Amino acid sequence: MPRLRILPLDVIVEAPDGDTIMASANEAGLYWPTTCGGQGICTSCACSIDEGADSLEPMGRSEKRTLSEEMGEARVVAGRLRLACQTRMHGDVTVTKLGVRRAGASLLAID
Ligand code: FES
User: Which of 31, 42, 70 to mutate to test the pocket of ligand 1 (most atoms within 8 A of CB)?
Assistant: First the structure.
C-alpha cells in the first residue's frame, strides 16, 4: 500500500494502489486545496513531487495541457509539478503542498 508524505504539514497517509494524491489525502481526513473539485481544470491542487516520481503514473495529455496553460511550459518540463487530483500513486511518494490541513481544523489549531 503506497505511503504518501505531505509537507510542510508533515503527515503520512496510506492509500490503495492507484489512488490519486488528492483522494488519498481526502480519505485520510485532510483538506486539499481545490477549485474545480478534482476535475483537472483549475490547478489549485498542483503540488511539487519531492521524492518517488517513479512511483507515479505518467502525466497524461490533459494534465500536461492544463499545467502548461495555467502555470507555464517551463514548470511542466522541469517535471516536479503535478496535479494531485489526476496523479495516481503506485508506491511511496513525498510531496509539498501549501494549504493542506486537517479537514475542519482551524488554521490556528494546526501544530
Ligand atoms: S482540483 Fe482542480 S485541477 Fe486538480
Answer: 42
Ligand 1 atom closest to the CA of 86, numbered from 1: 4
Answer for the pair 8, 98: CB distance below 8 angstroms, yes or no.
Answer: yes
- From CA 8, how far away is CA 50, in angstroms rounded? 11
User: Residue range 92-99: average pLDDT?
Assistant: 98
CATH code of the domain made up of 3-99: 3.10.20.30
pTM to 2 decimal places: 0.91
User: Which atom number of ligand 1 is nearest to the Cα of residue 84?
Assistant: 4
33 pLDDT band, cuts 50/70/90, is: very high
pLDDT digits 0-9 by tens, 7-30: 999 999 999 999 999 999 999 999
Percent of the chain with pLDDT over 70: 94
Torsion, Cα 106 108 110 111, to 10 degrees, reads -160
CA of 22 to the centre of ligand 1 (A): 9
Spell out the domain ranges in the chain: 3-99
